[in-house]
Amino acid sequence: MAQITENEIKTIVEKVIGAMQSGSTSKATWDSTQYNGRKLIGVYSDMNEAIDAANKGYKAVRDMSVEKREKIITEIRRLTIAEAPIMAEIGVAETGMGRVEHKKLKHILVANKTPGTEDIVSNAKTGDDGLTLIEMAPFGVVGAITPSTNPSETVICNSIGMIAAGNGVVFNPHPNAIATSNYAVDLVNRASKAAGGPDVLVCSMDKPTLDSAAIMQSHPLIKLLVCTGGPGVVKAVLSSGKKAIGAGAGNPPVIVDDTADIAKAAKDIIDGCTFDNNLPCIAEKEVFAFRNIADELISGMKKAGSYMITPEQADALAKIVLQEKTNKAGKTSKVVNRDCVGRNADVILKMIGIEVSKDIRCIICEVPFEHDFVQHELMMPILPIVRVDNIDQAVELAVKAEHGCRHTAHMHSKNIDNLSKFAKAVETTIFVKNAPSYAGIGFGGEGHTTFTIAGPTGEGITSARSFTRQRRCVLADSFRII
Ligand code: NAD
């Protein structure tokens, strides 16, 4: 394990304390081009230059053996585990969102469970007419747009998959998480160099903007766009005219019926909902509980570290965490207050004058289905609970609350018919039964991980093969051995 130097610790501690002293709602300022006096590799001021450099990286990967690619990926995994504490600290300090301990775990998950070159498999078809080979080929240079919620996790996860598939990558990271994202870009490049690959394998921007994203989207060398973010950016890349993978927003509902292990359901839901302060897009966002077990569920949630607010307090809090915005066309809608996203529960409660201990990790409340807390993807540890009479009502409301994102849904039940009914009706990319949400991305559940869950474009739990195009080679009339 690489050691964090004393200087590095001092810098991080100063920044974290700075962020905390300002009420944990403001972010520390970080340099997106250097870390502790060390220049970050692969960071450019001009998107065209970044794309040219990524193209060189792509050519180097294309000429490389698969074994060499795998060596680079092994080194990325090693460095990610070693430097998870640094990225977790910077991530929280720069964005002001999430929890350091959980961000560490997310990086370790990415390092251990993102598939590498083994995910790329060829197919052969033989018959009377000879042999046909179908291979998963790289696209070329991928343009990747990454979010503020899992910044370095997404950069590393995307890099492993895209490099394993033989691509180059240029990132346009979220403006609120540039330093964290660029630290990860630099880590990938350091891994490449250490494993005998090119010095600059993946690239990024020092000041990513919508303009740099636009250059990326129209540049002839960019053959695939991969976008992880909210509805606005997914729509933008899907309208670009290029092949695009869109990993968009969700609003994952949870149903708890009266056959569930209620104490376990309560703990699982709060564990999932509060993981990294609800930043993961798969995290539990609203609960539909059978009326006859709702009290027991709420009591279990309180035991698991939740604080229950009254409906009046919920209304007061809704006015703070959601703000009205009018667009250019004069249409008004509610948007999530960025100063509340990913904050600790005690910090959010303080905004309505409630002081609680730091052990409180979730705010729960009983609300009607129409409440803003149910309808909006909040990405903070606030969990609304709606009582329902039966499975049909639960499924109907949960499907509506998911808003057709087809992202993620959860259910706690031992009734196979109920489980199947919801799974079929909600049509989500991920459906987790009787576990915290993160089991759906391989954390305490089977299967590989990703931080780019592509519901809208259908790739699902993306991996190296998602970033490939199929190519066929035909040899007619011979090359069979039987
Ligand atoms: P965001 O939508 O604010 O930003 C995502 C990225 O898009 C950023 O890099 C941003 O600068 C860029 N961007 C925004 N509008 C753009 C435009 N018109 N053109 C080009 N680029 C644009 O996302 P965020 O707040 O960082 O992340 C949270 C959102 O992302 C949530 O809705 C969450 O559900 C979603 N998300 C989805 C996944 C998934 O795998 N499906 C993973 C993480 C986050």
Summarize, please.
It contains 15 helices and 22 strands. By secondary structure, the protein is α/β, with parallel strands linked by helices. Strand 16, helix 13 and strand 17 form a beta-alpha-beta unit.
Tertiary shape: globular
Strand tally: 22
Helix content: 25-40%
Residue stretches low in confidence (pLDDT < 50, at least 5 long) are 17-26
Average per-residue pLDDT, rounded, comes to 94
Strand content: 15-25%
Q: Rounded to an integer, what's the Rg over CA atoms?
A: 23 Å
Q: Helix/strand-derived class? A: alpha/beta
The separation of the N and C termini measures 52 Å
What are the bound molecules? nicotinamide-adenine-dinucleotide
Q: If helices are DSSP runs of H or I spanning 4 or more residues, what is the number of helices?
A: 15
Strand order of the largest sheet: 13-16-17-12-11-18-19
State the major sheet: 7 strands, parallel
